[in-house]
Each structure stands twice: as C-alpha cells, then as structure tokens.
Amino acid sequence: MDVQEVLKLADDLVFINTGKHLDNLQEVILRGTLQGQKYSKIADESHCSEGHIKDIASALWKLLSEVLGEEVNKANFRVRLEQVKLSNLWNFNNKDCVHIGNVNVCENNSQSPKVPNSPIDEEFLNKGNSESKLRQFLTEMPKSGIFYDRTSELATLKQWILHEHTRLLAILGIVGIGKTALAAQLVPQIKDEFDFVIWRSLATSPPPSILQTNIIQFFCRGGAPVPAPNADGVVVPENGTTTGGLPLLNYLQKYRCLLILDDVQMVNSSGQLAGNYQLGYEDYGTLFRQVGALSHNSCLVLLSWEKPREIAALEGQNQPIRSLQLHGLGAEAGEILREKGLAEHQKWSELIEQYRGNPLWLKIVATMIQDLFNGSLSEFLSEDKLFLGDLELLLDKPFNRLSESEKQVMSWLASETAPVSISKVPENLQLSRSQFLKVMQSLGRRSLVEKIPEGDRTFFTLAPVLKEYVKTNYPRPNCE
Ligand SMILES: Nc1ncnc2c1ncn2[C@@H]1O[C@H](COP(=O)(O)OP(=O)(O)OP(=O)(O)O)[C@@H](O)[C@H]1O
Ligand SMILES: [Mg+2]
After folding, report:
1. How remote is the CA of residue 5 from the centroid of ligand 1, in Å?
2. Domain co-membership, 219 together with 362
3. How far is the CA of 136 from the centre of ligand 1 (A)?
4. For the chain, what is the domain count?
5. 250-260 pLDDT, tens per residue?
6. Nearest-CA neighbor of 32 among 7, 14, 52?
7. Which of 146, 151, 180 has most ligand 1 atoms within 8 Å of CB, for mutation?
8. pLDDT, tens digit, 9 for 90 and up, residues 324-356
9. Residue 75 domain-assigned?
10. Domain end: 340, 362, 387, which one?
C-alpha cells in the first residue's frame, strides 16, 4: 500500500467510527508517521508545539486501536493497516471503488464512500446459503455444550421473536443461571430467519460509539452500504432525526437483524441503583429505547444481570418489548450432578434447592464436594453452615456493584429468618420510605431478592447462598 492508500484507509476507519473525516493535522501526523518523521519535525512543519502534536497523535492511536480491537501506535500503524487490508475487510482495488465485504461501493468523489440510493444488496441478500455465513457474526457466541431443559423458555423466546415481533428483549438472571447458554441454544434455531445475525459481548465495556462502529463493520462485511455523511460530514440516518442520530438504527430498520448483546450489565455503573449507565455510556439507553420504539423487523436481545431501565419502563404483554427472567433448572439440574459423578440421588433435590438450580453454582459446589468430601453429599449437607468456597469469588462480582443502601438492605434481609414484608421500613435502616422502596426495586432488578406472593401480599427473602454470602461479607446495618 502506498502512503495515499494507507491514509485513505485510516480516513475511512475514522469516518465510520466518528462520522468525521481526518482533519488536516491528523492527516499530517499520519503522513509524517508513514514517512518516519519524529513528532518534533511534524510539529515544526505544521507550526504547532510538539506537545500538541503528541496529544493529537495519542488520541488518534487510541481511536484506531478501539476501532481495530488491537493496539495501534506510531511504530505499528502502517503494519496494522496493511493487516486490515489483507484481512479483506477493506480493499482498495482502484481509486474509484471501495470493496467492503463482497460489495463494491463506488465513490463519486475522493472524500467519502457513496451510499447507493436503493439497497444495493438486495441481490446479495437473496443469494444462497454460502453467503449467509457472511451475515452471521457469531464468533463471540460460546459453543453450546451439554444443555438440559429450558424447553419452555426456548419456546417462549421463539414465539416472542418470530411470531410476536418483539423488537427489544432482555434475558435476565443472576450470575451463572444460564443466560448465555440459553441464548446460544436459541440462536442456531432461529438464525436463518434473519438477514444478519450478530453476537457481541459487552464484557470489556466498549463505549457505545465503538460498539456501534464494530457492528456497522459487520453489516458492511455482509454487504450493507457504509453510513452516509450529511452536508457537515456527520453520519446521520437516512430518514433524518427519527433514529436518534444513531446510524446503527438505520441498519436495524433496513435489514431484519438479530443482534445479541451479552454481559450488558458491564455498561451500567457500580455503586448506584440498578440500571444507571456509566458516565459516557448513556447512548446505550438511547439505543435500547429507540430499538423498542421505532418500527422495524429486527430484534435486539440483551443478556444481563440487571434489567435495563428502558425495558422496565416499556415492557408489556402486548408490547414489542419483553423480558424473560431466568430461574434455576428444576430436577434436570440433577444431570449436572450426575456429570460431576455425585452419587446419593435421593439427596440431589436438597442440594438443587439450596443452590436454586443455578447450573454454574451447582457445578462449582459439586466440584467442591468431590474435592473436600470425597463425593459424599450427605457429609456436605450435614455441615451446619452452607459452604460457599469458590462461589464467593463468583458472587463478589455482582455484589461489588451494589450501592451502599442496597448493601444495607441485603444485610437486613440476610438477618431475617423468615420472608419479610416491606410494608414498613425496618427501624435499623436509615432510609426514607421512598429510598427503601427504590432499593427493593433495584435489588429485584438485579435478581437478588426472591418474591413470595401470599394472598394479596408479597414477602421477600434471599436465596440461601446469597444469605450466606451477605452474612459472611457484610456487617449488620447500623447495629446497636
Ligand atoms: N440448561 C443448562 N444445562 C446445562 N448446563 C448449563 C445450562 N445452562 C447453563 N449451563 C452451564 O452453566 C454455566 C453458566 O452458564 P452461563 O454462562 O450461560 O450463565 P450466565 O447466566 O450467562 O452467567 P453470567 O451471568 O456469568 O454471564 C455454563 O458452564 C453453562 O454451560
Ligand atoms: Mg453469560
């Protein structure tokens, strides 16, 4: 690639991500870098301070690193872009045409790729199965392993997605309950109904603009046009402002897409009530809201520990916005214990009940029983305290996200021997009634409290494992 080609590719990558082309100074820095110049020389030639050049360069390397998903710096910039070209994602075969995936997007000027007036990829989408793989981006979806039960959950999800046109759907549940495994079972069963199927994990908390870029790249690889800039060079949806300014929404409207975002809780903030976004991540809320509100045939599936506020506010039986709360496996969880080589079948149900049928918790505890009790379930169950072992580490993650007031309320719930009513604020909690109710609601949205309806009243309690975790890790609230 010559200097011009590398610069053009960098410009396209930046443009796709930010909706803006490289400015003069950024281009000078990249050109200087390609010519082996030091920042001091680039600074002299562009009449800026070296510090300023370094700042701009470092922001540019960061942006390119985020876009490419690997470190880009002054030393490896050319190599990285050569690799992108070789990966066939972006090919420049001549000055007039950019090849993205299998589709040529021809330019009418040298500045920006042209978006065709009508979907150029109709033909592409109608091709046979060999191309369909190019529109299914599932490398982040875990391989499905041995999987028990969940027949009714799978049927519900298929009904909602395929027959009731659910546009926004959350699969919710505590750590280890099987959200990812369930979705990984579901996707192969329904994927051929969609033009595009994309699975992305938010475990690394990608900023919304980066996620959007990544996903748009998948669309482009699958034959969709790159987004169009408006007169100011900013990417906007084709139909003006209705898509909230998020170009991704345009693709979800134009194609029938199944987009699965896993580990969505990682874009929420810690230390606050459930459903608040980290600073700078609020666009996720906008995206979820708009996906629920706009008319389209796509479905966005969110897998999370926390129910997103947008879903809590808008979901309903007759709405295109739904959530599925995952509970533990029933007796089928015994298969997990069988796999782990536990005997004493007659005691399995007791263990499953204590660990609430949570497949991961059961795997962890069964391993512990093998390691420490020589596989004797009765010896393990005769311990007077529920033993957490490695489960404690697993539970640290969701518990470390709680606000102080949530921790207080969890301590109170753990200290109660029977399920409690929330008709009054407990005296040892220094919370107003409204704060108390908000906290209870938030804990419910995190799947941390169990609700027990009794007549026209509801009582609350904690699963034994959570109770034990809280007793071990949190002091009693404001103890006398
Ligand atoms: N129905 C099932 N049958 C057998 N194993 C299961 C089932 N569901 C989940 N598992 C196993 O339990 C473990 C946890 O499942 P998974 O990762 O899907 O949970 P999760 O809810 O996504 O957890 P996290 O909140 O950490 O993302 C995995 O090893 C998975 O294979
Ligand atoms: Mg998961």
Report:
1. 46
2. no
3. 23
4. 4
5. 999 999 999 99
6. 7
7. 180
8. 999 999 899 999 999 999 999 999 999 999 999
9. yes
10. 387
